[in-house]
Amino acid sequence: MATFSYKARNWDGKIVSAEMEGESKEVCIAKLREKGYFVTSIAEKKGSGGMSFSFLQRGVSSQEVCIFARQFATMIGSGVPLVRCLTILQAQADNATFKKIITQIRSDVEGGMTFSKALEKHPKVFSDLFCSLVKAGEVGGILDSILERLADYLESSESLKSKVKGALTYPVVVFGIAALVVLALVMFVLPQFKEIFMGMNVELPMVTQMLLATSDFMISWWFIILPAIVAVPILIWNFFQTKTGARLYDTNILRMPAIGMMMRKVAVAKFTRTLGTLIASGVPILQALEVTSQTAGNVVIAEAVDKTRISIREGESIADPLKNSGVFPPMVVQMIAVGEETGELDKMLSKIADFYDSEVDTAVKGLTSIIEPIVIVFMGIVIGGIVLAVFMPMLKLVNAT
Fold first, then answer.
1. Buried b (16+ CB within 10 A) or exposed e, 100-128
2. CA-to-CA separations, 297 to 29, 178, 301, 376, in angstroms, rounded
3. How far apart are CA 351 and CA 269, in angstroms?
4. How far is CA 139 from each of CA 115, 146, 225, rounded to the nearest angstrom?
5. Which candidate among 12, 67, 321, 397 keeps its CA 20 to 30 Å from the CA of 158?
6. How far lies 398's CA from each of 235, 332, 386, in Å?
7. pTM for this entry
8. For 247-272, what is the mean pLDDT?
């Protein structure tokens, strides 16, 4: 039995911090939800449990959850009983971890637990949004249509995520390859030329001297430099996982000239798609905003949504706090205001999401077209500069003779 420290929001909106014992995070979260708490963070206290080998297990990808939702929606819509659906999905699951989770869900449902409660026991796989929509479908007796809407949402989200990944993967891979090539040239090729340069009776150009000095430094301190190349990105990544780091990253990424505009459109598309799906599914507005805040993926957007939730609780509109945040474009704010006035907020949010999905497509294509020549020029300057620095002494010797 391990001990977990957690922070949760109660029904009054107050943050509660405490500790509890449980077999796992999932079990603790499920118990807290039964008490009416909405968990914001939970972590196992060091030394409170035995050694864990969970890192050896394959996780469940968002794509697998997306396929699960679509297949489940299709079978439920065709009149297949709930337990029978889970049995079929369990049998065809290729991922052993996911198979085990579906088996546990089926067992809980057969034991009398509601489907949404059974899903809530696995928060690492099924998000708050997923569970909230399923719960709304159970309460309203429209689980089949809710699951269809959920499957559509997950597929749209996956498509949006793949577009962004596709735009950012290319420059990362190319820069990584360029860095390895430069490292190999500096550490293995240049030392061979150094012996040749030593036999020349010419003064080496400043660029060549600097390059040789860099090579000597890297060869002498390779046991520090190579681990640093691995450790520094990991440390930066861990810093960005903290509250301060996440705020710093999310604030500055939105201010960047090209990438910032694309990320802002992605955030707006995700916010409107999530909130629209929840409202259309019958989830109460305050709960919908809370779930949207938790799944925003951006601290700045999440804070704006939290302020909106407080505003609505005090009897105000949705549009005003979104406008005051400075994050959402004027068009989005105005369309949300019109949706509130006409009582068709869910439809308006869906239209905004569709519009920004197409905007993300355009932004990704534009960003890719800009990045490619920049990357090519960068690699040409770096590698060409090294080659030029190597051959300049030889050219100088030829001219001297």
1. ebbeebbebbeeeeebbbbbbbbbebbbb
2. 20, 31, 8, 32
3. 10
4. 11, 11, 59
5. 321
6. 49, 67, 19
7. 0.62
8. 82
- Give dist(CA 44, CA 4) in Å, integer: 4
Q: How confident is the model over 127-157, as pLDDT tens digits? A: 877 888 888 788 777 788 888 888 888 887 7
**Phi and psi, residue 272, nearest 5°:** -70, -40
317-322 long-range Cβ contacts below 8 angstroms, 24+ apart: 318/345
Helix, strand, coil percentages, rounded to 5, for the chain: 75, 5, 20
Torsion angle defined by CA atoms of residues 27, 30, 34 and 40, in that order, rounded to the nearest 10 degrees:
120
Question: Which pLDDT tens digit goes with each residue over 377-395?
Answer: 888 888 788 888 778 877 7
Residues 286 and 268: beta-carbon distance below 8 Å = no
And the tokens for 45? 């206290």
| pLDDT tens, position by position, 187-211 | 887 787 777 777 766 677 788 888 8
Q: Is 53 a residue whose pLDDT tops 50? A: no
Distance CA 186, CA 214 (A): 8
